[in-house]
Structure formats: C-alpha cells, structure tokens
Amino acid sequence: MTLARTAVRGSAASIGGQGFRIVLQLVGLAVLARLLEPADFGVVAMVTAAIGLADILRDFGLSSAAVQAPSVSRGERVNLFWANTGLGLLCTVAVAASTPLLVALYDEPTLAHIVPALSLVLLISGINTQYRADLGRALRFVALASSDVLAQLVGTLVAIAVALLGGGYWAIVAQQLTVAVVALVVNVVSTRWRPGLPQRCTSIRRFFRFGLSVFGTQVLGYAAKNADTVALGAFWGSSVLGGYNRAQQIAVVPLNQINGPLTRVALPMLSKAHLDPARFSRAVLRAQLAGAYGTATVLAFVAGLAVPIVAVLLGPGWSEAAPILALLAIAGVFRSLSQLAYWMFLSSGRPGAQFALDLWAQPVMVAVIVLGASQGAVGAAWAAVAVWPVYWIVGLLVASRSAGLAAGPLVWRAVRALLGVALPAALASWYVSQAIDGPLIALAAGLAAGAALVAVVALAVRPVRRDVAEVVTLVRHAAQRGEKTSPQP
C-alpha cells in the first residue's frame, strides 16, 4: 500500500473518530453549561492555563522527535518512556508546589484545592506520551482515534454525574482526570508494549536535541494562545473568564478535534516524504486542503451562526458570549491555516527555524492580546483577530523558504478556499439566521443556506471545484479502506 493511501486512510480514521469526539464534547458542554455556573468554568480555566504550560515541558518535544525519527530502537523507546514519565512527575510536583502563587495571582482561594488535583494529569500524560507516539509512528490511526473517543465519552459521563450530584467545579476536574486515565489504559492495551528498566548504554540525546527546539516553539505558541485566559482571569476574575472560556471552548473544538488528529497523520507522512522535494511539495499542497477546506470552513459557519449556537449550546444567560465566539472563530480560521507551517518545519527536520521565528513573533502577539484583554473579553477576542492572520502569512513564508518550497501556490490555494468557500458560508449562514426567530430553527436554516451557497460556488468556480473534487476523492478512497496494521518497530 502506498504512503499516500495510508495517509488518506489515516486522515479519514482520525477525522471520523474526532467527529464522534466533537459531538461528545458539544453534548457535554451543553449539559454542563446548564448545570454549572460561569465561575465554575472560570476557576478551572485559571488552573488549566498553568497545567497546559507544564504539559509542554512534560512532553519536551520528545513525542514529535520519536514520530519524526526514521527509526527508534527498543532501548531508545524504553529510555524515552522513562524520560517522559520522569518529566511528568517533575511537572506534577512543580505545579502542586506553585499552588500558593496561583492563588495569589488570581486572588482565588478555591484554587488551593483544584491545582493539586489537576496536577496529576501531568504524571498520567507523561506515562502516556510514548504510547501515543508509538501508535503514531506505526501509523495506527484508528487505534489513536478510538482511544480519544472512548476517553472523551467516559470523561463526559463522569463530569455530568458529578455535576448532577452538586459537585460544581469538581465536575470539570473529574472530567480531565478521567480522560487522561482512560486514554492511558486504552493506549497501553493497544500497543501491547511493556517498557523495561532504563538502559544506561542507550543514548537518547538526538531526541532531546530535536525536542529542544520543538519545546521552545511550543512554549512560545502556548503563551500566545493562552495569554487571553491568564490576563482576563487576573484583570476581571472568574465570572468574566468563565463566559469567555465557554465561547473559546466552542471555537477551539474544530481546531483541537480536527487539527490534532490531522497533525498525527500529517507529521509522519510528510516526514517520510521530505527527502524527495517533488513528493514533499505535492504532499504539502494536499495537506493544506484539510485545513483550508475543512477546519476553516467549519469555523466560518461557527462565526456566522454564533448567536444561535450560543443560545442552543449554552442556554439562557450566556448571550454575551456570542460576539466573543464570532471573533474567536474568525481568529481560529487563521490559527488553523498556520498549522501547515508547523507541519512543514517539523517534517523537514527544521524545528530551529520555527523557534527562531517564534522567538520574536510570539512575544509581539502576547503583548497585543494582553493589551486587548485589559479592555475586557471582547477586547481580547478582537486582539486575536488582529494577530493570527499576520502570523499565518509570516509563518507560511518562512516555512516555505526553509523547506525550499514556493510559497505562492500555498498562499493562493488558501486564499481561494477562504474567498470561495469559507466567506460565503459565513455570510449566508449569518444573513439567514439573523432573520429567523427561534435559535434551533435559525441554526438549521443558517447551516442549510450556507451549505447551499458553498455548493453553488463549488460548482460554478472551476478552481474551487477542482479543490473540492480532490477532497471528495480523498474521503471516498479513505472510506473504502480499513486501517492497515503495521508491525511495531
């Protein structure tokens, strides 16, 4: 079976699994929004910002290094496992010890209970890191998707149960811990691999060298993506942050649940293709289709239908989240497109080039976002709209030059997708939905109108029609094939 077909099937398996996960997340979000208060979400969001930063240290880029490497020996796998487990334990202890600092930063006493509990996620994820990398390196994308779906299902059910029992913010804490534990158990069963004791005679320095640049890039990127959360919590407190966090959660569902699995598919595929310039160029152009015509279009619908989406998912009392959601969805379109540059940097073995870019670009983004957050939740959302399109263009130009590819075709294909599909979808869905009373009917009518206009554009505009036809062909071919079970390296 060719690498291209494996990539197609992997993409289909990952996106299909994430489709179920998106549904689960949205159902859980809708139920929990009616059982909990905005402040409950806000206090947990204060902690998850710190947890997420420590989680990057826990990984240290070693998962990407393991997937990108042409080969990984058994001794290296064992040592990588213990390295990530040790980093996970270190991060758990460090975050738990930082509890007084976080309580003082946010002036929120309840964090004294939440921080130590959520810090355990870091240890569990540390143990799981190389199991996930092992499945990705073996191209076992169905197994990865199954793990994600099952973990999300069990976590959602646990959260709803705790909320019904009056647990408040503990429902969200229990959800995150449950997801981490279930994912670990399923991945251990799937890999059927048991690490032995660390092997002193086997060096993993090459993985740390690669991971160091990835780690630096991820820290800077995380700061830009979470500066709004930290700043809003510090400036305005848990209630304002809770409303913003729910809008953000809806906006990032397509980003996390589509781009995450696509990264697990795209990175090993592009890494195998990068030694052949012509093959790598074709693979990059094909990889861009998923973000430009997939995630970006979904987010365009979210932007256009923000008002009925908030009314349906979050219910009464959350109307102020609608304009925030619309703005964050627009920013998310360009966050999605910027993922391609990330794939290009890593798959071509040039993480240092992205780190050099982010060393100056991300601090500028953080400064703009913090300035916007000082004006409130809407200000933070507008700041995101301002910075992400610029970062996308700059990142794509630098990544193309670093990988030896022409940036013009990549930029033009993305612009064509935005103008030909995403923009018509957003405008049509907004125009129809705002003229109809009743959020559920408005949502359905807006979706239908947007989809109809996109279909007309796809039929009438030849370049868009070719792109859409290629996406449809990829999906159809993927649907006709099952997962290939590759031997463990």
From TrEMBL:
Keyword Lipid biosynthesis: no
Source organism: Cellulomonas humilata
Name used for this protein in its record: Lipopolysaccharide biosynthesis protein
CDD domains xrefs: MATE_tuaB_like
Magnesium in keyword set: no
Entry's localization field: Cell membrane
Annotated keywords: Cell membrane, Membrane, Transmembrane, Transmembrane helix
Record InterPro entries: Poly_Biosynth_Transport
Main subcellular localisation: membrane
Protein family membership: Belongs to the polysaccharide synthase family.
Membrane-spanning residues: 78-105, 111-129, 141-163, 169-190, 289-315, 321-343, 410-432, 438-461
GO CC annotation, single: plasma membrane
Membrane disposition: Multi-pass membrane protein
